[in-house]
Structures are given as C-alpha cells and as structure tokens.
Specification:
Order of helices and strands: HHH
Strand content: under 5%
Shape: elongated
Distance between the termini: 13 Å
Radius of gyration: 14 Å
Largest sheet: none
Structural class: mainly alpha
C-alpha cells in the first residue's frame, strides 16, 4: 500500500464540483477517496506493459464497497 502522499491540485467548474461532492457524500465517501479510486483505475487500464506493484493491481477497500 502507499506509504506517502502527494497533493494534486485540479481546476474544475464549481457546479461540477458541487454535484461531485453531493454524490460522494450520498455514498458516504470523501471526494479524495473517489479521486484516488479513479486514478488507480485509470493507471491499471492504461499502464500497457508497465510493471505495476501488487498493491496497485489489487482491489482496494473502495472497490470492495468497504469505506476505509
């Protein structure tokens, strides 16, 4: 599992941000949890021949429906 964190700053339309946050809250998830899951999925789907670490390829608690 990841042992360090780094900040990612994105610009998003305020209306999309509000809707996104409302949907996350309705699923009892933070926006950060959802973005991390989306990034993991994107990496796995687009890694090509890259050798990915096992912890990245494995299913996360979010993928299993468990809130960390």
């Amino acid at each position: 599992m990841e042992s360090r964190t780094a900040r990612l700053t994105i610009l998003i339309d305020p209306r999309k941000k509000q809707i996104f946050e409302e949907i996350c809250a309705a699923h009892d998830l933070t926006p950060s949890q959802v973005v991390r899951k989306l990034i993991r999925q994107y990496i796995i789907e687009n890694a090509g021949d890259r050798d990915l670490p096992d912890w990245l390829k494995g299913r996360s608690s979010l993928d299993r429906g468990v809130t960390p």
